[in-house]
Amino acid sequence: MGLVPECFITEIVERDLKEGRYAKLITRFPPEPNGYLHIGHARSILLNFGLAQDYGGECNLRFDDTNPETEKEEYARAIEEDVRWLGFRPTRVLYASDYFETMYQCALTLIREGKAYVDDLPEEEMSALRAQGKPSPYRNRSVEENLELFERMRRGEFPTGSRVLRAKIDPAHPNFKLRDPVLYRIVHAPHYHVGDRWVIYPMYDFAHPLEDFIEGVTHSLCTLEFENNRAIYDWVIENLKGKCGLPLSPRPHQYEFARLDLSHTVLSKRKLIKLVEGGYVSGWDDPRLPTLRALRRRGVRPEAILEFVRKTGISRNEAQIEIDLFEEVVRDDLNPIAPRVLGVVDPLKVVLTNYEGEEWLQAPYWPRDIPKEGTRPLPFSQELYIERADFSLNPPKGWKRLAPGQRVRLRHAYVLELEDVVEEGGEVKLLKARIVPGTLGANPEEGPKPKGVIHWVSARHALPVEFRLYNRLFLTKDPEEGGDFLKNLNPEALVVKRGFIEPSVAQDPKDTRYQLERLGYFWQDPVDSRPEALVMNRIVPLKEGYKA
RNA sequence: UGGGGUGUCGUCUAAGGGUAGGACAGCGGACUCUGGAUCCGCCGGUCGUGGUUCGAAUCCACGCACCCCAGCCA
Description:
The protein has twelve helices and 27 strands. It has helices at residues 8-18, 41-54, 73-85, 100-112, 123-132, 143-155, 204-215, 230-240, 269-277, 292-298, 302-312, 323-334; strands at 26-29, 58-63, 93-95, 116-119, 164-167, 182-186, 200-202, 219-223, 253-257, 260-262, 319-321, 340-341, 343-344, 347-352, 358-364, 375-381, 383-387, 408-410, 415-424, 427-436, 452-454, 456-458, 463-470, 494-501, 514-516, 520-524, 534-541. It has a seven-stranded mixed beta sheet. It has a seven-stranded mixed beta sheet with strand order 21-18-19-20-14-17-22, with no helix packed on it. It catalyses: tRNA(Gln) + L-glutamine + ATP = L-glutaminyl-tRNA(Gln) + AMP + diphosphate.
């Protein structure tokens, strides 16, 4: 079983390899360094790197950096870091901008062959003519004039945006992408990677096929919106193969797959930026976000992200996946590796009337169904905290927790029986209760057996914790519902609670992921948590069996 | 409008002329010192209309719906 789920692309790859079309599979993950990676990118990453791994090929990380105005070194580094965090090691880390000279030579070749021309038309006029399917008045300049103009463009003799180099294909082609697409534009702006060496920059449609061809990419995988661009991709390669140092064959081929879309969140760069810059979240790594850095900070493991991508498959159907599936995969990933501990997120104090002193119980880290061993000392004493939600004065039918006249089991400890409720201003302030003697590891000898089990901590021993409870970012499946995605933001996407956790965690490695029994999976926030002031993120809640 | 795509349970995804299957969600049950996990069961689908065929999700025709393109972004 490979990393990549079987799909139309693995079929193509297998066919091409079997027929000897390529000696070795070469793919690439080609992000533009103008933003941070999010979970949607994970599909492309898994596809490209996974394919290389599955079929003994190579996969490069290549920055598609042909637009100096939007790209930054900082983004490139963050992207590389995220790719590695997911567990992939690029064969090489490459930059499209390193090929600018070759691309320039390719452009000259096209000009010499009468397949490209310099156009002086202002942007709006070009767009208007293109819409009408009419040729530019500059379309039939001589090769000599085109050559001279293009060289002068490179030398910086013309201002930004004043001229472009266009492919001479067909001004009236039904596919608008083929109506003499722009190959080069003038931009007087420094480039984060190659500095100020260039004032002309190639367009995606010209650069991308050349990048792939130069690197020997065999399968150029991209998302559906580039489908129309494939015609230019092929045009560029067919017209330049065997020239400018490019091989005759084999040549790369482009295949498109559907983007990964998730419900209850946003994956568009524009909206993500709005959330960050508008202060709706604390930054690009705010655990409410679907960015890889945010998921990492939240506590999601890369294994879970990859498994999620595998489970959703790769197809050409534009599909939005329900976030429940993602959460389920995260739980599945954590369940076998997260030791169980007790913590209380919303504390309600309980004073025992028939217990004094303290004792240290040995509590197993793992439930029966997980074949792991290990226990930790768990202090028990007269004053405890239980979860406020685990007590009810007027319990509904089916209530299995603490209530007047209803016993509960304290996890790993005694059976508890309510004696008195101290209220203040209509709010329950304190519970007085007694322990049923002889119920440590045994059922009560008389009276009813407890119906349920609740978690607790010893008040005197517990460590205070700031709990950050994360929920879905948006209230609606589709954040755009109603027209303004900001209006659908979930005000409870982050709920902060002051609670307690059992003292054993102080002994654990800081990056331990726990299951707080009956609450969910948690770990210490890698940014804000300190030993003397614990901050714990809820990675994902447990599946809630109880429906009120 | 032209061009390019996509339509299978609520949501993803298989089935490539031969019993429409799986996962997630939902519902019900078993088990349980986590209302977790696990196990069992149920619910539920081929965009429409014709055609070809012994047999169609699959092939053909005509529709319909949705997405993408008409940046000197990628």
